[in-house]
Amino acid sequence: MKPTVVLYKKLSAPLLAELQQHAEVVFIDEPKRDGLQRLREALPGAHGLLGASLALDAELLDLAPQLRAVASVSVGVDNYDVDDLTRRRILLTNTPDVLTETTADTGFALLLASARRVVELAGLVKAGQWTRNIGPAHFGTDVHGKTLGIVGMGRIGEALAQRGHLGFGMPVLYHSHSPKPAVEQRFGARHCSLEQLLGEADFVCLTLPLTARTEGLIGAAQLALMKPGAILVNISRGKVVDEAALIDALQQRRIRGAGLDVFEREPLGHDSPLLELDNVVATPHIGSATEETREAMAACAVRNMIAALQGQRPANLVNPLAFA
Ligand code: DGY
Q1: Span 4-97+291-322 CATH architecture
Q2: Is 0.85 topped by the overall pTM?
């Protein structure tokens, strides 16, 4: 008998067919809303779970005593208690690499849009308010040649450094737990403390994962270190930033602006003060959201799941101790 995989993210027809060769698939739509009860009912029979954007807490896992693997369609694994999964000997896989370039593109899009006020000024044109030549009140700030600060020098940080340095002639500063000599050599990047980076960078880009250590990393004290003309770009996770402190800094114009793809609460509430600020470019967590990349991520998750169900070590295993 084939194992059962509970799928809570829609797959393309070819990927679904590939998974169905190895598993009975139970599809749950909208597991965070209407589908939650159906998810709970399906969990007792589940050997695998495949999806994204659902916090799999202990209460849900307790309903799934046969569960052997969770294949997340994401690189970030902050929705899971990795230690708990390991204790339960449930393999957790993610989808790194395939989304690196696309997510870095999103970061750079936010950086450019914020610096050049693209969204704000395009809105003015659409509203029929372009009635005379644009003057100083609507000028943006240059990107080329400015200092790019990258917090978290993983794959996505490196792809941002490449864009900034090779494409826009930007000196690159970075802060990460260990120096990355290859990045320093290729992009002239300089390793420094967070404080130094915040004080020197014109663009501060957050690319690090959300962990107990990085939650609230950028609060009022850190924002106060940024240059008044600097822009914060967040493509990591909303909770890395103290959002209330950021809103305050933006309202008081203590920094120039922010380009944000991620928020403390997603979807962003209609009542968020961020929506009122013309110095904020906000996108709906689209870091990896292109047709090609989302398909590549789903393919990666399907293959990780098939390997796990076959007792093999999946290519992107987050918790190797669960496999040992
Ligand atoms: C990821 O892959 O982690 C993206 O941010 C989507 O959650």
Answers
A1: 3-Layer(aba) Sandwich (3.40)
A2: yes
